[in-house]
Amino acid sequence: MAANGVVSGSSLIVSFGEMLIDFVPTVSGVSLAEAPGFLKAPGGAPANVAIAVARLGGKASFVGKLGDDEFGRMLADILKQNGVSDDGILFDQGARTALAFVTLRADGEREFMFYRNPSADMLLKPEELNLDLIRSAKVFHYGSISLIVEPCRSAHLKAMEVAKEAGALLSYDPNLRLPLWPSAEEAREQILSIWDKADIVKVSDVELEFLTGSDKADDETAMKLWRPNFTLLLVTLGEKGSRYYTKKFHGAVDAFHVNTVDTTGAGDSFVGALLCKIVDDPSILEDESKLREVLKFANACGAITTTKKGAIPALPTEADALALINGA
């Protein structure tokens, strides 16, 4: 990123949605009831993406609402400490910051129990949005948790519309969390309700199967989610790497094999790495060899993130990713 303010100003990635605290058992492979204690792990997919971008040297801002409480202030500080602009952060006097108890099963996969009734992130109103910040985004990234309830849903739709009108690339990672939705049907319907608006969409193999009703994460299934206005559709396959689809080409990029401890934040790290590269060179989306290099880099970032507990402490720097790629 150039030191020249004009250039860096035009490469801003704005991430919209929820930030919360995951409480993770001090021992792996136990149920929440069996856990002897919990560690605080800041998270929330859109916030993780913003920090992933900043850690890789990109320019990131987070838009969302936190509780005006100890935890909310802590999360705002974590964003600032990690180089994420706090111009889009609001505090709610009446609601608490969201909490999630997350158990890591013996295989490193997760189970969730959420405390959001309602949490501050759900109460973000359209009129509270920092529209100037959103208009200055070159990439506007979001998930689907902010679509679940009003008024946050309206704020989400408004922010997307404003970013799109201002010429931003829209990036969507639905980040399915079924326990937060009233039903699976509602989740599928609402996640797909804004599908056509995005330029870049990333889904996991599990989300692909859920959204299409298929039991296979193959090319044919992925194409059911393709839309004519998309620039890039990505399917992440965990240890099997990732697949990419554009108007002109499609293919697969292998994963890096690492000692996985905790998969939390791996997808966010992947997205952050991808957006960081695209924001500086949008021609990547038209050039298959460039895109494959970028996806290799994003896969490396995702893999590194699984080697430590918690998302934010595990997010890599560019040097970490290059070391893995170069086999150091």
Automatic annotation (TrEMBL):
It catalyses: D-fructose + ATP = D-fructose 6-phosphate + ADP + H(+). One of its GO terms (molecular function) is fructokinase activity. The keyword Kinase applies. Residues 12-317 form the Carbohydrate kinase PfkB domain. CDD domains: bac_FRK. GO terms for cellular component: cytosol. It comes from the Eukaryota. InterPro entries: Carboh/pur_kinase_PfkB_CS (IPR002173), PfkB_Carbo_kinase (IPR050306), PfkB_dom (IPR011611), Ribo/fructo_kinase (IPR002139), Ribokinase-like (IPR029056). It is an enzyme of class 2 (transferase). The keyword Protein biosynthesis does not apply. Pfam families: PfkB. Signal peptide: none annotated. Belongs to the carbohydrate kinase PfkB family. May play an important role in maintaining the flux of carbon towards starch formation. This is fructokinase.
